[in-house]
Amino acid sequence: MKNRKTFVTAVATAMMLTMLAPQALAETAQGAPVAAKVDTKVSADNYLKQNAGQYGFKSDLSDLKHVSTINTEFGSYVRYQQQVDGADVFYHQVTVTLDTQGNPILIVSDYVPNLTGAKGKTKLNENDAEGKALGHNKIKNTKELVSRVFGYYVEGNGAAVPAYKVTAVDADTLSTWETFVGAEDGKILKNKDLNQKVDGTGKVFLPNPLETAGTKTGFLDNNDADSTALTGQLKTVTLRGLDGSGNLTGQYVKAVQKKYATYSATNTFNYTRSSNHFENVMVYYHIDELQRYIQTLGFTNVNNRQITVNVNGTTADNSFYSPSTKQLTFGTGGVDDAEDAGIIAHEYGHSIQDNQVPGFGNTLEGGAMGEGFGDYLGAIWEDKLAPTSFGNACIGEWDAVSYDSGNPPCLRRLDTNKVMPGDWYGEVHADGEIWSQGEYDLALQLGVDKATKLILQSHFSLTPSSGFNAGAKAIKTADQLLNGGANATAITNIWAARGISAN
Predict the structure, then answer these.
(1) Which residues are in the FTP domain (predicted)?
(2) N- or C-end of the chain: fewer Cβ atoms within 10 A?
(3) Last residue of some domain: 356, 390, 423?
(4) Kind plus residue range of the DSSP H or E element containing 129
């Protein structure tokens, strides 16, 4: 996201990430082995209680509310929400990762010790808070009902401030604003646009005309006009999972467009890129196939849902995912974004992370991880569809043809050799190249399928405020669960090359 404001809280300095020693994993407090097929939540509760002093938790875990338990073939993940006086502390969670025997092997914690509430000090109600938030963001018309949630916001000094989290979609700009309003004085504590955006446009073919042709010569946007070169790169594909209504609606995708409804009684959708229907076909095919690919890796619980995609939904030169509406919107500035499979996959990556860890990307490092994962997904999807050397370690070749003179032109690259902390810039897209190269290097060493499986598995371990260090540790933990730690050394070295510790 452009211009993401820095969010500094106690988490930045106090987040605790612990990889448990192997000898500690197989024992309870009394030293007895943990039995197979135990209740994973009970196991996680017991471990947190036994080690409450280490993390600053209350001994009875009375301010940690159980959120979810996710069981997979390779391990389980128990998530907790920190609370004060029964209300959530926004974006402060704890996750416990357990192996198949129910042994805790990784703790990721955003917990802030010794928080106290402020009963009796709230002066604003929900309507007051909504008015403050809408006024601050100059929202005149909302797209849907506004969400108002009371809880506690942790300031930089570690104090818990009673606040309302107001989430609203601006009907005019489609921006989704999350605003924290102090319940005592109406002060705006934090404000950000939640829409995950990409700087550029362009949707492609299979994956895009430059990659399948192996050259950029002769390929110009020319205001959406057809050309012999572009039409020659169109590939015939199977659109799977259509619901038979004649619309581009299926199990995993619902492609919509405000002015141009795409319909075929015979379910035949053959268009060239000058047609406004062309982008609908592109988003349906690529998102549907991406979800099916994820399921071939063994995941049936990663964004396994129908996602609404608003094609050509904005004239701006960007696209975004909205965590509020759970929808994707693609822009028409420059090359239409929905013509480039790398851009489609990038935006779908934001949807994936929000599905696995709602609210993910609450810090600058987390935002960079989100952009980096999106770039990784876009790059490996392009590589799988067109396994040639042209465009490797590059995303959005067709999208970038109007603004990058490189050969190939790229929105961003995954081989820039950026390293923490020297190359940290403070902008999520630029800093995302640090994270994306680590993931792309993992794919080069282990193979795309194995690396992608580790990366997706690792997301379950994260919290909304996780950063680079937590992400690298989670990938290493995922390898322990899936492969018995066979790739531990490679993972450590890959992230060390980026200046990030996985230990």
Answers:
(1) 63-107
(2) C
(3) 356
(4) helix 126-136
